[in-house]
Amino acid sequence: MNNQPADIRILSFNFRNAFMDRGSPHAWPLRREHCLELVRRGGFDFVGAQEVQWEPGDAETDQAGDLARGLPEYGMLGGPRDAPAECGEGTPILFRRDRWEPVSDAQGQLWLSETPDVRASRSWDTDCPRILVWARFREMAGGATTGRTVIFANTHLDYRFEHTALLQAALCDRVLAERALPGEAVFLTGDFNMSERSWPVRYLLGEPLPLPRVELSTAPLPMRDAWREANPGAPDERSYHGWGAETANSRIDYILFAGAGLRVLDAAIDHAGREGAYPSDHHPLRASFAW
What CATH number is given to the structural domain containing 199? Predict the structure, then answer.
């Protein structure tokens, strides 16, 4: 992908929580450099990261610290979803410091619940706290702003129940709709844990849903699926592989977008394994846009 000055390159990547595989062949220290190399090589403007663990002082599980130290060219927004606030899993946003500046009064972390401002809150039968991290970014060039902005958001939806993921997705969409300026470029990345024919994804893409809850019938900010636009006639392609087992039969990771002046240049699932070793149990999803 050619990175022209007006292009935007994005990665959505579930890093696999480091607590899950301690002492195994998939332990974080054994794949840490692979993950860092994957981000560096791509030269991405934004990375929507899922299942990143904050564990300060623990060399085997502090993924957030390793990303910050290993990718100094990137800033990071977001934090753990749990209580207390110092440790736990989160969905941070990484952004290229040389091109993007977060707007201080237009960013936040919300819990996908009926009380989104309450730390670690849960609703709708979700199995654990789920969050949305979002921010408005100014484009910078030569040390000055170009006057252009984008909103970038990242999440990880519930995996057990479609109705739970739908309500979480609807909250994400409403938050972005309320904050986006007219015509502003908006991106939403995430592990949605649902196929493209599921209700949560169809809702986010603007399809009217025959639901009894009138407020969920149509998304206030209909979005577009970068992978599907780049691969319009292709069969669905799995993004979760379970360390090479390829157990899933559909894509569950997404880069969605909305706003004037955006065009998908390409989008692909990166089969990033090498010699049987994978950086995560998910394949990363990348996309580039003309802006």
Answer: 3.60.10.10
Residue 3 lies in a domain: no
Let me know: does 29 contact 17? Beta carbons within 8 Å. no
Task: Report yes or no on 213 lying in a domain.
Answer: yes
For residue 53, the SS3 value is: strand
Neighbours of 265 (CB within 10 A): 18
Distance in angstroms (rounded) separating the CA atoms of residues 193 and 50: 12
How many residues make up the chain in this entry?
291
Number of domains in the chain: 1
Q: Kindly report each contact of residues 109-117 with a partner whose C-beta sits within 8 Å and lies 24 or more positions away, as own/partner.
A: 109/78, 109/79, 109/133, 109/134, 110/134, 110/171, 110/175, 111/81, 112/155, 112/157, 112/167, 112/168, 112/171, 112/172, 116/171, 116/175
Packing angle between helix 63-70 and helix 28-42, nearest 10 degrees?
Answer: 40
What is the value of pTM for the model shown?
0.96
Tell whether 277 is covered by a domain: yes
CA 62 to CA 65: how far, in whole Å? 5
Is 2 part of any domain?
no
From 195, 196, 179, select the one nearest 187 (Cα to Cα). 179
Q: How far is Cα 155 from Cα 134, in angstroms, rounded to an integer?
A: 9
| Domain span at 20 | 8-290
Q: Report the distance separating Cα 200 and Cα 4, nearest Å.
A: 33
What pLDDT is stored for residue 1 in this prediction?
A: 42
- Report which of residues 2 and 41 the model is more confident about: 41
Category of 100 on φ-ψ map: left (φ > 0), alpha (ψ -120 to 50) or beta? beta
Q: Which of 80, 59, 78 is nearest to 69 (CA)?
A: 59
- Tell me the mean pLDDT in the region 202-208: 96
Is the C-alpha dihedral spanning 71, 69, 87, 38 positive or negative? positive
DSSP state of 91: -
Tens of pLDDT, residue by residue over 142-151, are: 989 999 999 9
